[in-house]
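Handout, page 2. Input:
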Amino acid sequence: MSRPGTTTDLRRQRGALTVLTPLLLLVIIILSVMALDGARLYSLRGEMQAQVNVAAQAGASATQSCGGLAPSSALIRQRALAAAQAQGYAGEDEALTVSTGVIEVPGGDNVLAFRPVNFIEESNAVLVSYTRNEPISLLLPESVFGTLDITVNAAARKEVTATLSAAGSTASVDAGIVGALLGAVLGDPGYVLDPTDLDSLRNTTVELGELLTELGVADVAELLTLDGQELAAGLRDVAGVASPLGQVLDDLLAANGISTVQVSEVLDVVEGTQVPVDSEFPLYDLVISLVLNVAETQQDAAGGFLDVPLDLNLNTGLANVVATTDLRVGEPPRVVVGPARQDADGNWRTRFYAPDVSLRLNAEIDLLPLGLINVATLSLPLAVNAGGAEGAFVGARCATGTRNDVAVILDLERSIARLGSGSIDPDNGEIIPQSVSLSVLSSALLPITVLEADLTVAGEVPGVTENNVVISDDYPLYCDAADGCYSDEYTDTGDGVSGLDLDVDLSNVTVGTLPIGVALVPLQNTLESVLGDVVEGLAVALVNPLLEALGVGLGGVTVTLSNATQGGSQVIENVPVVMGN
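Output:
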């Protein structure tokens, strides 16, 4: 049976398919082309991202915190462009935008961002941006589908973080000097530090992770809020209570005022610095800093000075000298951890200080002893102001390629050291000059006055500024599992005691009962020369060793590099960019 409607419907369907099929094929082709173009654009964007990634890393190796002595914006751009080209970049040089700045966490939102800076001295990071205009499709008409701007960026941070201190020269100290310092803060004039204990103290470092675990705190920020007693106890427990070092720290726990000292007064971590848990700190520097901080808290109750039980008997052949010592601490040193770059105000972020100390010596002098006869016996109060030498971490070369070491570069400023007869102002540590009366006698049995005079002593070792001092050119980043991290010490003594410009002056000289006449001038010159030798002998035997134990000699400074890390390196793709401070 025939169905007239069926034939008509089939014809209509064939007609519809004839129209729709080409359209469907066209849509499929377009979608396929767009899928291919999408894959192409995605792949292109990946290539562009890889290029800016390597460019940012290469540029970051020339920033202030990583680029050594001569970082420059031109060098940063040159390195970034060369690295991008090695990765396949073939565009115009100007299409690659290179900006110098810092990577930080702005506004406390815990999201890292890049902030451009005006001066390269502030920088620890490089941002590389690349925008490329591409047709959406290579096969379909550009006039229909248009073009697309593909923009990528990457910021890379590289910086060396160093642990520095000017708290003392471990090469020059002895057990007697350090024992006297400990005895001063412990109020125990008879305190004795065994040489084995000193070796344990100056040859030991403590790992940050161990200390944090022992004290039960999560990070450095929490550590800095603790007090000195908690720090000493933690260091003792890390070292071992029964060890020589543990015993020294256990003794220090008994010091009056130690609980009033904050860890932040001993250890200074520059804001924003990431301190790896395997970083190490020098025990000697930490302990000396802690001791001087305690001394500072005690000295006010002791009239501004702390009695250091360090007596000296000196025989120069021309004089017998017995001297005692008092110490005034103006500013204790700190162990500082930070990078080699400036803040927005142009100040170096990582600064360290030798202690600002003054010494008060009382020297009992027998001049020209001749058996039972002394030409003169006098009490000479000597005052010494060592000031506070200082320095800054101003340059670092990062480890690159197969080279697993870094360079650490400093600026140093040695303060003027002054020495003279007189006293010390307990409020500011400045020398108050004064003369001392001198009477020359022929014999204690037959006291005949030869002459009387006012004696004045004044001496100075000039301060010197040195820039770009390389404390280490090849500090290894690897810390040995058994021996710990490498330690480097830079001692800049200047001219030391030999640079002491000393003037000993006898004034208001009056002739006594003997008719010495023309012999007065030679005798006066002899006495001035002998007294000059006595004062220089005191500086060599007592003053300079004590100051060096504290990190600052007469006109000198000692800096210890105890750790350097490069663990803060990172690359951030499509990083947000913020402006301003």
